[in-house]
Amino acid sequence: MFLTLMAGCAELERNLVAERTASVLAHKKQQGKVYNHTPYGFDRVGDRLVVAVEEMAMVHLIRERRDDGWSLAMIADAFNTDHIPGKNGGRWYARTVKNILENSVYENAGSGGGCG
């Protein structure tokens, strides 16, 4: 019985930590602050994210192509064929495109200038 109680307390604590972490990350994204690696479409200036105009244009192109029915792999292949480098100069993958489409940091970026 004691072990079950301890396991329940540990699970509760783990859930609280996860909730607080998610809340802090969401707040940092909303404020345009660095929260992890620098996402595609942004540059890091101190602890802030600033829009990288050329990369953000590619983010908009990704959204347009997705809206036009392109698959994630088709978008990645087109960028690789056109020699458009990823954030660190690497290749594009369907998962990379999906991560960009799902990342909420782009919601606050607007059409240029800055983030937050």
CATH topology-level fold name of the domain at 32-108: Hect, E3 ligase catalytic domain fold
What does the main sheet amount to?
2 strands, antiparallel
| Helix percentage | 55-70%
What percent of residues are in strands? 5-15%
The number of distinct helices, counting runs of at least 4 residues, comes to: 4
Compute the separation of the termini in Å. 50 Å
CATH class of the domain at 32-108: Alpha Beta
Please give the number of β-strands: 2
Instruction: Report the order of strands and helices.
Output: HEEHHH
What does this structure look like?
With 116 residues, this protein is mainly alpha-helical. It has a domain at 32-108: Putative Large Serine Recombinase, Chain B, Domain 2 (Hect, E3 ligase catalytic domain fold, Alpha-Beta Complex), CATH 3.90.1750. Helix content is 55%, strand content 7%. The chain is built from 4 helices and 2 strands; from the N terminus they run H-E-E-H-H-H. A two-stranded antiparallel sheet has the order 1-2. The longest helix is centred in the N-terminal third of the chain and has 30 residues, at 2-31. It starts with a helix and ends in a 14-residue tail after the last helix.
Characteristic key phrases:
disordered C terminus, single chain, two-stranded antiparallel sheet, mainly alpha, Hect, E3 ligase catalytic domain fold, 55% helix, 116 residues
Blueprint (SSEs and pairs):
Layout: H1 2-31, E1 42-45, E2 48-51, H2 53-67, H3 72-81, H4 94-102
Antiparallel strand pairs: 1-2
Helix pairs in contact: 3-4
How would you summarize this macromolecular structure in one to three sentences?
The protein has 116 residues and is mostly helical.
